[in-house]
Amino acid sequence: MEATAQVIAERVITLVVDAVDLNAILARVDLNAVLRRVDIEEPIDRVKINEVLARVDLNALLAQVDLNAVLKRVDLDDPIDRVDLNGLLDRVDVNQIVQQVDVNEVIAKVDLDAVLDALVEQTDLGAVIARSSSGIASDMFDAVRSRTVGIDEAIARWVARLRRRPYTGPPGPPAALRAAARS
Question: What is the dihedral angle through the alpha carbons of 94, 98, 100, 103, rounded to the nearest 10 degrees?
């Protein structure tokens, strides 16, 4: 008898469940009213957030972040506009930075051919050659000597800059010769 009752109960339950339109029932339920009755604060208060965070693997989480996509969304102009560059630069000790520079290493990396080419371009060697073809050998010699002195001065200024020392100008004749030349 018990087995028959169980079979009948299962059959009745199946018929009732098949007959019930769950979508229609759920459509009549006011979920907002149900949610207003739920006290969400109580379960949240029971959560120990530090224990939850201790279980989070931040490295695994960050490995899933596309930093390029994040950075594309960042507006850098606003923070840059707020930076006081003059104040920041005032705090930089340039002397300390310069002391860490190995001048010999810097000079070793200089392409002297390029420097000399640039100096020759600045001295307008073409004009010197044109004047030499005019047949006035002394003018050419003076011009070349003048340009050579100019090149020497340019190189001296450039080397002084590289060595971070002031350029005091070309060396002059000894004081005795200057005095004799004036008289």
Answer: 170
